């Protein structure tokens, strides 16, 4: 009897295997953003929860990408800002990562996320004169991007002799300069925020100047979580972080753990999450691009304490005026500013209610 039962089970699995193979093939073709859109209902399906997770993770890790080479012809003195602007425009058009070279930029994009019309239009109407930009798209072989990005690593970044951000996967604390009070180990895993970018460095410089003992912090667009972790090591009472990308949320949680930080709560969301938050924050950090900042500043102001601080970066110096005008209408007063390699950082203070009356 046992042999007959085993034989029936074996036949059953042989019969259903082709069905699962076909289902896997077609599901793996679904773009990752579509999987994310409908993922909640798929996860709730009692028949395929494990199968769904496998396909979803497979699709995220082995993503289909195209590579674009942007060739730039311009004056040598304009090249740094032109390269930054090309990266910014391409990022708005869907590109996710970049390499820079002496006379070109190489970018990577998932085909279904690329807005070709917007990219072409913005490059044709480039804001700097006497600049010629051309690009060519080509397919890229499937790569495990998680593994590729993690293996690149980065050199330790020292900031004001008070803080060092280092690659926790490839560097040990014993290799760092001694007597640095704040040491933040980061494993990137696709998220932004290693300390190598000027905007991250300027944000950290401003955080280091503040007394954060017992303060409440909001970290908008947290990326790797580096800013929140620095704030925690400065004595912050609690940190609420959020990011629209699932991998950034997971990366922040992971980096908090390896830095022994247990007072950071991380959520996957955009600024709409602030509509449901009743608490007020002493400090808000946002290192994002200009357009998102312009949209989100009112939401930031609504959850800031009187005399609270807002630190913004992720935009160019020439964009500062737009942000200053927006902030002024919300009773946010500029108290400090900084710039590095065409990038800017502004610190605001929220005026007390009685001063506005």
UniProtKB/TrEMBL annotation:
Transferase recorded as keyword: yes
Family matches, as InterPro entries: Ribosomal_L11_MeTrfase_PrmA, SAM-dependent_MTases_sf
Pfam families associated with the record: PrmA
Transmembrane residue ranges: 9-28
Molecular functions per Gene Ontology: protein methyltransferase activity
GO annotation terms (biological process): methylation
Gene Ontology CC annotations of this record: ribosome
Organism whose genome encodes this protein: Hoylesella saccharolytica F0055
Keyword terms: Membrane, Methyltransferase, Ribonucleoprotein, Ribosomal protein, Transferase, Transmembrane, Transmembrane helix
Sections of the chain in a coiled coil: none
Top-level taxonomic group: Bacteria
Name the UniProt record assigns to this protein: Ribosomal protein L11 methyltransferase
Protein's UniProt keywords contain Transferase: yes
């Amino acid at each position: 009897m046992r042999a007959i039962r085993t034989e029936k089970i074996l036949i059953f699995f042989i019969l259903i295997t082709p069905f699962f193979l076909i289902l896997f093939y077609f599901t793996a073709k679904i773009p990752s953003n579509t999987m994310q859109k409908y993922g909640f209902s798929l996860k709730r399906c009692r028949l395929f929860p494990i199968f769904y997770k496998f396909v979803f993770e497979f699709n995220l890790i082995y993503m289909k990408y195209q590579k674009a080479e942007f060739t730039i012809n311009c004056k040598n003195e304009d090249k740094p800002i032109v390269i930054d602007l090309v990266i910014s425009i391409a990022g708005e058009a869907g590109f996710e990562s970049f390499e820079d070279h002496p006379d070109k930029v190489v970018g990577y994009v998932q085909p279904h996320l690329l807005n070709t019309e917007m990219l072409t239009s913005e490059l044709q109407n480039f804001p700097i004169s006497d600049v010629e930009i051309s690009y060519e798209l080509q397919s890229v072989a499937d790569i495990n991007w998680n593994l590729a990005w993690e293996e690149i690593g980065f050199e330790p970044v020292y900031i004001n002799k008070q803080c060092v951000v280092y690659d926790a996967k490839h560097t040990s604390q014993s290799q760092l300069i001694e007597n640095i009070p704040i040491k933040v180990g980061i494993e990137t895993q696709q998220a932004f925020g290693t300390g190598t970018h000027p905007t991250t460095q300027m944000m950290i410089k401003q955080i280091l100047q503040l007394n954060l003992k017992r303060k409440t912090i909001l970290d908008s667009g947290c990326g790797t979580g580096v800013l929140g972790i620095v704030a925690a090591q400065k004595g912050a009472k609690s940190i609420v972080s959020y990011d629209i990308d699932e991998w950034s949320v997971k990366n922040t949680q992971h980096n908090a753990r390896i830095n022994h930080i247990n007072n950071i709560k991380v959520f996957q969301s955009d600024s709409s999450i602030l509509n449901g938050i009743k608490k007020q924050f002493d400090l808000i950090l946002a290192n994002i691009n200009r357009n998102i900042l312009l949209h989100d500043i009112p939401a930031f102001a609504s959850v800031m304490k009187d005399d609270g601080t807002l630190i913004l970066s992720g935009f160019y110096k020439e964009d500062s005026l737009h942000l200053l005008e927006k902030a002024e209408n919300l009773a946010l007063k500029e108290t400090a500013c900084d710039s590095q390699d065409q990038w800017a950082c502004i610190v605001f203070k929220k005026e007390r209610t009685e001063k506005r009356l």
